[in-house]
Amino acid sequence: MFDYDTIHRTARLARNHAFASFKSGRAENASYEDCCFLELQSYMGMVGCGSTQGARRFQTRRGRHYGPHGDTHLRAVKQFTRETLVDSFDDATERILSATSSQTSFPRPVTVAIDITTLPYYGAVNQMPMVSGTEDPTKNAYKFATIALVGRNIPLVLGVEPVRESSNWDENPPNRMHRIVRTLVRRAQRHVEIDTVLCDREFDSKAVYQTLSNLGVKYLVPKHRFVDEYDAIEQIEESGSEVAVESATIHADQGSHAMRFLYVPSTKGEGTSVFATNHRIEPEDAELFCRRYSARWQIENAYKSIKHDFLAKTCSKDYVVRLFYFVFAVLLYNIWRLTNLLLQGSVEAAVGQKPVVTAGECVELVSSALIPPD
């Protein structure tokens, strides 16, 4: 049986602590307070609709004059900036973690994962500086990088950073992944002590390795295969071994440090996987250590839930609107995860177990707590 008091308490924490972080800068005598727009955005994300339909349904639930119209909602959202949205999310995360610290705790130091997700963009790309190309040359997308807890912790998202890439239709500067990594790790370090950072192969670069080393954290990153990697794999196979550890030194503009390349059997079938790390790993421990990378599946599942369960729909081509919708969906996802963390404590379940409340169930329960009937 669900602990409804805990669910409602968590929802109130979201309202009192997370919502307070988002300020549009509108006039104090505006017709609607910021919390009305945030309630409407929550409702839109939870029922999976756009601003026009969401506003009508919201007013049906709360009253004709309670919430703003859809076009009013979009105008208010556009008052935010990219910087204020990212900072607001960071502040909301701090508020929520502080508010729940007396009731919950995370195994520390933590392992975090950095990855990039996309939201499809349809339309002409002229004058769209935040739209990036994808692996499919016929498709374009907005891209967002996140850093999240993984491993023994709930996959709580600790930071969001927009990704601006160089594309063949504009004059954007080349994307510098190490800067995104530095920004995200520094944000996460405000909340938790980090031991290891897991990155996708997209972050395979000397600059990223050195940036993480400079930040005082360990890393585990799968490498692209080039001539040197293929030569090393061939030598390993000829020696009859399955595992090898190669010591190396990284030299980058940001400095240098000692690190290792780990050659281990692929978990996806035959072949060898190559990882880069600054952990001190011996050959006998390399294969087991690299299995830690599988913890990244949690962030992939998080993206699926954020987009399916909490992201409101919009056809707007305004980047601030897109960023607001994504950031707020991540915030709602965090609320769900923290609700389950509190519930797991109430039923003496271990962190990392299957959620006590599914995203769909939490949508209904948190929605009723955030938007109570008159």
Automatic annotation (TrEMBL):
It holds the Pfam family DDE_Tnp_1. One of its GO terms (molecular function) is DNA binding. The chain crosses the membrane at residues 319-336. GO terms for biological process: DNA transposition. This is Transposase. The keyword Ribonucleoprotein does not apply. Keywords: Membrane, Plasmid, Transmembrane, Transmembrane helix. Residues 180-334 form the Transposase IS4-like domain.
